[in-house]
Amino acid sequence: MREQVLIGAEELSRDLAAPDPPAVLDVRWSLAEPDGRPAYRSGHVPGAVFVDLERELAAPPAPAAGRHPLPDPADLQESARRWGLRRGGRVVVYDDAGGTSAARAWWLLRWAGLRDVRILDGALAAWRRAGLPLESGDVVPEPGDVVLPLAAGGAGPGMRTTDADGAAAWPGVLLDARAGERYRGEHEPVDPRAGHVPGARSAPTTENLADDGTFLPQAELRRRFAGLGVRPGAAVGVYCGSGVTAAHEVAALASIGVDATLYPGSWSQWSADPARPAATGPQP
User: Which of 144, 159, 244, 265 is the most exposed, having the fewest neighbouring CB atoms within 10 Å of its CB?
Assistant: First the structure.
């Protein structure tokens, strides 16, 4: 389970030196610094291609769809070919924030039908700690020939989504992956209203990570999510502000064998609809 979601820095280094290396995508992004390209150019994993989260991993924002709507599968396939992804190839994604933005690329590619996509555990910091080399400048790969099954009319391998109506009537555990102060309604830096979806439980994405930015061990993740009400066979839904860091929570759950459903519109969509109620405070 975990090894299907994550890859360590040393293992990635060995794979990159092998005859058939994986494609590596640098997905640096944050609310404070949405353009990660300058940081990428200053130093990245050798051969890594920069991915623009705002333009390549999302459709244009709209109140009715949220700040980062899912891209059209055909557009995602075009981007993936531009990144050099090839049929049958492996993919590794990373950022410099514990995987919290790279997980968006992991989730989208899995949603679109690719199976061998992993997140660099510990992000770029783990690569640096291992003493591995960095490369500067831009990498422009040869165009790839990858076919995303979803773009070709097929289906992804079980990466499920729900919408606002589904979140409102969620039958199991609905997790809010934003920071606790945003969940409680104490601070809302970007979206129309503060608060959370009634019934959702606060489960900040950052608490999936150890102090060094790697994912918590499996036993600790199981205890964390069990404490949030996640039980075997329970329906688990996840949202955040705009469907980015929630993908990291889906990845953490996948690493312990829990298939979670993403609400892509997330709070940015929900809070833009005045007919949707907003709960505040520490309780669901």
Answer: 144
Helix axis angle for 102-111 and 245-254, nearest 10°, is 70
Cα 169–Cα 60–Cα 266 angle in degrees, nearest 5: 20
**16 is written with which tokens?**
């990159």
Question: In whole angstroms, how large is the CA radius of gyration of the chain?
Answer: 18
The two structure tokens encoding residue 172: 């199991």
Rounded Cα–Cα distance for residues 217 and 182 (Å)? 27
Question: pLDDT tens digits, residue range 205-225?
Answer: 999 999 999 999 999 999 999
Host H or E run for residue 7: strand 6-7
Q: Side chain identity at 204, as an amino acid letter?
A: P
pLDDT in tens, 49-65: 999 999 999 999 999 99
What is d(CA 270, CA 265) in angstroms, rounded to the nearest whole number? 7
197, 174 Cβ separation under 8 angstroms: yes
| Known catalytic membership, residue 240 | yes
CA torsion 25-26-30-36 (nearest 10°) is: -130
Catalytic residue, candidates 240, 247, 258, 272: 240
